[in-house]
Amino acid sequence: MDGNRRYARTHHIETVEGHNLGFEALARILEVCYKSGVKVVTIYAFSIENFKRSKFEVDALMDMAKFKLSQIAEHGDLLDRYGARIQILGQRDLLKPDVIEAMDRAEEMTKGNKRAVLNVCFPYTSRDEITTAIRSTVVDYSKPHPPPLRRPFSEGHIARNIRARNLGTLSEEDSPEAGDDAPDSLDGDKTSDAPVSDDASTNSLTLHESTDGLKEDKVPDNYPDPETITAQTLTDRMFTEGNPPLDLLVRTSGVQRLSDFMLWQCHENTQIVFLDTLWPEFDLWQFLPVLVEWQWRQKKIQSEEKARLRLKVA
Which side of the chain, N or C, has fewer Cβ within a 10 Å radius? Predict the structure, then answer.
């Protein structure tokens, strides 16, 4: 939604009025999107970088956001008609409490709508979104796994009972606690009188070290394996988590750059369109050709994919 300020300068009106006209353009475009079957619309309403603008303009934008969000939520015929709910994406901790309250109210009042989504990026930059996702991943992968449930009986105890039942010669009460490794003779006098040789000490030490080694080998790594981190791991931690892939990105005002918007979500099949028109002037007749071209490209991609599948089968 770029070009509100330039539109205001060109038409010699207040900057705030230019933003207000931009909101009216948004309502028109949302109508077209939802009528066309678009399920998720994401708008770049306010960049974190916009806080560098004059205090007067920032305060005016915040007041407008509160008013418009309340207006949409309380009298949102458009959203209710198409079953669209509002989701606010961005760093809310940068906003004042009254603005956050308006956002929470808008989300709460539209949460019952399940057929479509309106993502409002406010305040947002893609680099901040990616940084937040990475930070969340680091925190999650720095936490140990919860300890396994302790068994009421040891594996050795259970194994001895099973052997006793199968052999029919030992009962649970009569089974020796020492297990199969106990010596044949349990004569206390012979044991106490027998000299302890160096070999016996060595053997005892060797057995002790071997047992410790086995214990160390059995200790599982109780932290998540960082080698399992993939692109999907970060995607699942983005603000847009759960949304379908980004199919079409439209930038108005004639500027050919993404301006830190949805950098992660753009993929090899995302169609990016730059239009030489200011956002308040953007309407159906300028948007319709974009949708038609996108549909044509989608059909072409699907046809090429089917052709590749036929070649693989042949």
Answer: C
> Which pLDDT score is estimated for 151?
63
| 236 flagged as catalytic | no
Q: Is residue 262 part of a domain?
A: yes
Question: Looking at residue 256, which CATH number applies to its domain?
Answer: 3.40.1180.10
- Dmax (CA) of the chain: 111
Residue with tokens 């991609």: 301
Among candidate residues 2, 113, 119, 128, the one labeled active-site is 2
Residue 29 falls inside a structural domain: yes
Q: Specify the number of domains making up the chain.
A: 1
In Å, how far are 140, 148, 213, 221 from 218, measured between CA atoms? 24, 13, 9, 9
Q: Which domain holds residue 111?
A: 4-143+231-313
To the query of whether residue 203 is one of the catalytic residues in this protein, the response is no
- pLDDT, average across residues 3-20: 90
Among 49-58, 73-82, 200-209, 229-238, the range scoring the smallest mean pLDDT is 200-209
Q: Which of 50, 161, 243, 247 is catalytic?
A: 50
